[in-house]
Design a protein that fits this description.
single chain; 220 residues; alpha/beta; five-stranded parallel β-sheet; 8 helices
Length: 220
């Protein structure tokens, strides 16, 4: 009997691949999207900065370290928080998704001015949440997301998805078919749900938890 084939739409670490291998799976991985740097200017007035991805942090990491002075930082996801903390920065609030972060801001920072540092494929959740409570905000695009398309043959037993953009990129040359889909969060799962109900989501959006769920699923 052949091994289950798991395709990851994000490059995995050796330890992550070994975890899937130990569960009896074969693994193929590639980055279904890539972040391209773009020119941008940071408005001076907002002192409350929101990061919804690691790519936004990386884009600003190339800038002069003085731009971080006096800023209150908010972010989505533990990995994004880790990148900020590696720069020696303190994060005021981390949430598992943007909706939770918006709720926190609405309850605690109504009178502040926020800057959302994001990519060109950002979801509207932050802007809509600020508008709903008349909280002052602006958005600056610091990178662009581009698909990396490829045809997968044979059809994988399972696909690991980590963003709606990754789902879109994969589907540009492939179908979900009978593949089981492991999604990092509810937003990504919503993009997949248009094509299948064979979906598993971890309790919190963490790539290692996605790997763990896939390994558990196929170890049975």
């Amino acid at each position: 009997m052949s091994k289950p084939l798991i395709l990851s739409t994000k490059k995995l670490s050796l330890a992550q691949i070994e975890r899937l291998t130990s569960a009896g799976c074969a693994t193929v991985d590639y980055n279904a999207i890539e972040a391209i740097s773009v020119a941008f200017e940071i408005p001076q007035e907002p002192t409350h900065w929101v990061f919804s991805s690691q790519n936004a942090v990386r884009a600003l990491s190339k800038e002069n370290s003085k731009i971080w002075e006096g800023k209150t930082l908010f972010c989505v996801g533990e990995k994004t928080k880790e990148l900020l903390e590696k720069k020696g920065l303190k994060v005021e609030k981390t949430a598992k998704n943007m909706r939770f972060l918006v709720d926190f801001v609405q309850k605690n920072f109504k009178n502040e001015f926020f800057l959302h540092l994001c990519g060109n494929r950002k979801l509207p959740d932050f802007g809509l949440g600020m508008q709903a409570e008349n909280i002052k905000y602006c958005e600056t695009i610091v990178y662009q997301t581009q698909p990396v398309t490829r045809k997968q043959n044979p059809e994988p037993t399972a696909v690991l998805f980590f963003s709606p953009s990754g789902v879109e990129s994969y589907l540009s040359n492939n179908n979900i078919g009978n593949s089981w889909c492991f999604c990092i969060g509810t937003t990504t799962a919503s993009a997949v749900a248009k094509h299948t109900d064979r979906i598993t989501i971890p309790k919190s959006p963490n790539i290692d938890l996605v790997i763990a769920q896939a390994a558990k699923h196929f170890r049975k």
